[in-house]
Amino acid sequence: MAEETIFSKIIRKEIPAQILYQDELVTAFRDINPKAPTHILIVPNTLIPTVNDVEPEHELALGRLFTVARKLAADAGIAEDGYRLIMNCNRHGGQEVYHIHMHLVGGKSLGPLLCC
Ligand code: DGP
Known about the structure:
Helix content: 10-25%
CATH architecture: 2-Layer Sandwich
Oligomer: single chain
Largest sheet: 5 strands, antiparallel
Strand order of the largest sheet: 1-2-3-5-4
Number of domains: 1
Mean pLDDT: 97
Distance between the termini: 34 Å
Order of helices and strands: HEEEHEHE
CATH topology: HIT family, subunit A
Bound molecules: 2'-deoxyguanosine-5'-monophosphate
Radius of gyration: 14 Å
Shape: globular
CATH superfamily: HIT-like
């Protein structure tokens, strides 16, 4: 059984966060340490620690991440200019919180994919 992270508490509204969207499958809230004018995290409500733990039964929730990303990008007015969706996995991917999440980042030109 994977250990819960702070994101489970945010999903259950036990600790504060700026929640922008929530349904039965996913929750979206503003990143506490934004890297761009728009920086939103979209997470499945169920705990999946990393992309390495994804199973076919998760496909519905993980697909929902994209439809919610599309909606939130439109709401933020960044859809036409564009944005970046990021998922980090484990140490080399730079993952800090072990509850799978999609970063929706935009509102400025983001430059090349990787900075080292
Ligand atoms: P990652 O490196 O992909 O695991 O990104 C984790 C992100 O989670 C990082 O950008 C900061 C954000 N974060 C960590 N703790 C909290 C928190 O308590 N609240 C919110 N809103 N964001 C958090």
